[in-house]
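Section handout 9: paired folding examples.
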Amino acid sequence: MRLITQTHLSLDGVMQGPGGADEDRGGGFTRGGWAGAGDDEVGTHIVSTYRNAAAFLLGRHTYDIFAPYWSVRGDSNPIAAALNGRPKYLVSTTVLEPDWAGTTTLTGDLAAAIRALKDSGDGDLLVPGSGVLVRWLLAHDLVDALELLSYPVLVGQGARLFPTNGPDLALESIRTTVTAGGSVIRRLRPLGRPRYA
């Protein structure tokens, strides 16, 4: 499987709470729902990405947000149908027996477990959100493509995908789409350390 990450970002790099006011109030965050009512092209793309995923890899925080919300949605919602109908893998040292049906917790040598998942079949292993996990996957050279959905908004507070001080990484653009609503859907391939002039 190809490991694909998908992250919603504001122009100032915030990834926290794009979907709703109460989605993630961690750290006193009060500006949830900044992705707005939606851009139809972005929505169509997200649905397509979830439908095409063979399995999902979730960090603990994203699991805690997704499980109570998506597990009770019916199959008439295409994202719920994908999440509830396909294998989910949770990276956690504390949730050993997850409640969400079809979820397996990865334990032990995490890098080896994820490599084994990648070698286990075809299709995409999709990582939605999960900023801490995405950074760890990039550091361990496990990401095949990094997808960033950038919205035309400055949030001004909240957790960011990349810290102000962190490792450097060169990226190759695979595909870029600018929607009518001004959002940018960008898929990138990690290339290792950048070369500096």
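Moving on to protein 2 of 2.
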Amino acid sequence: MESSILQIGDILVSTEIVTEFFCCDYDLCRGACCIVGDSGAPLQEAECEELERAFPAYAPLLTDAARARLFEVGYFEVDRDGDLVTPLLGHSEECVYTRFEKVSGSGSASVVPAGLACFCAIERAHIAGQCRFVKPISCRLYPIRASRLSNGLIALNLHRWDICRCAFEKGRREGVRVYEFLRGPLTDAYGADFYDALSAAATHLLRG
């Protein structure tokens, strides 16, 4: 099905978000997106304050090197494109907020070392009830990438990343569309009315 655009209020949605399938296959990828990439995760300005506010909750889950990096550069950086992003650990591709935990199996489709998996320390603290902030919305929305256009509209597009190939495959096997997999993050980011409208548009589009 050819990609086009749905407009819901001031949000432009690529129809690939409706037509394509996606479901994280953590047994295979092991959270590789936390340690692969030439820049940190995109941040909204308000999230920089949230990261600082939640630091006491997630700090114990970080390595000494990660805490030292945060003390050195702060809770965010500005990348070469001028965007706010999470800091990387030194000269590596690893997000400073990454937490490694031991798991069974090898994660054969992942670049993560065997026997380990990557988790977000912030999210771990949130799940434990220690902070309100979950993690950056750009991480929660993946594989959707959001951008603000010059006319003030927000554009939501599907991003394809080789390390997430197994997630697209699992989504197809299980019949889970991108917008369905991301119902929670989409609702948190843009509201229940937006998600309801998107779901209704998806039903109409997929019937056609």
